[in-house]
Description:
Layout: E1 11-15, H1 22-31, E2 35-40, H2 44-50, E3 57-61, H3 67-80, E4 86-89, H4 104-132, E5 136-141, H5 154-174, E6 179-186, H6 192-200, H7 202-211, H8 220-231, E7 242-245
Parallel strand pairs: 1-2, 1-4, 2-3, 4-5, 5-6, 6-7
Helix pairs in contact: 1-8, 3-4, 4-5, 6-7
Amino acid sequence: MPDLLDLSDKKILITGGAGAIGRVVVDVLSSHGATVVANDVVAAADAHAALPHGENVRYIQADATDAAEVERLYAAMEQTVGLPNVVCCHTGMVGAYSVQDYPLAEFDSLMNLNVRSSFVIAQTAAKRWIAAGTPGLLIFTTSWVQDVPWPEITPYNASKAAMKALMRGFARELAPHNIRANAVAPGIVGVGMAKRQWDTDPSYQARARKAIPLGQMQTPESVAHAFLYLCSPLAAYMTGSVLLVDGGCSLYPMDE
Ligand SMILES: NC(=O)c1ccc[n+]([C@@H]2O[C@H](COP(=O)([O-])OP(=O)(O)OC[C@H]3O[C@@H](n4cnc5c(N)ncnc54)[C@H](O)[C@@H]3O)[C@@H](O)[C@H]2O)c1
């Protein structure tokens, strides 16, 4: 019986790989045999402290919003481990303000990181896969708020809706090249950006407590397991799909 979660033939690139969720995704995918290149902007020493240690985990520092840096990132990955066959557009940021107070400079930074950098990362992968005549898989990290107007993070909600649309567009347009695209949509994860809001904003915490039908913040492992499934042969026929793993958050507003 083959191990359907064996990823030893996979070379995976993930942006934001040293972040709170990213490092757990790297850990789960590499422990299933994948060679994983984590990209982030943090210094190499900080990334190495955050990432699992192993021959099959590498770190490449690069700014995913900068097209020239993204070219350098892919070239460095190809030189060391080869062309990726899975690329995860995972980095992102959030800002919490009411719509009337949202600073435009922060709106631009958020769209630049969440939407434009995901496009540049996915576009660069697609060009290289098409040139090489090889199949590929894109995974975009969206969020349950892609479809829900969760208050005080409206530009973030819009950026995740845009990423979902990008994912569907890449899936539709690149299917003839045997390039697939899917999304993982987490809920409210108990690390990283949501945990920072949970810890610092009492009104956010009160709202979030009501919005999670399963009653507790999500673990990063539950997000990583969705990546594991999408990278595995079990998901080989999936393209254009959103894998929602949110403890029921998107069922909000609840009755009480
Ligand atoms: N935490 C949650 O509850 C939650 C829920 C749903 C979706 N998400 C999504 O999951 C992803 C990761 O979130 P997180 O909570 O781990 O956040 P995080 O802030 O811990 O991780 C983001 C990482 O991206 C890196 N980064 C920032 N700018 C970069 C750039 N220009 N190039 C490369 N890397 C860059 C940061 O250094 C950081 O390590 C995001 O896309 C986020 O929207 C998070």
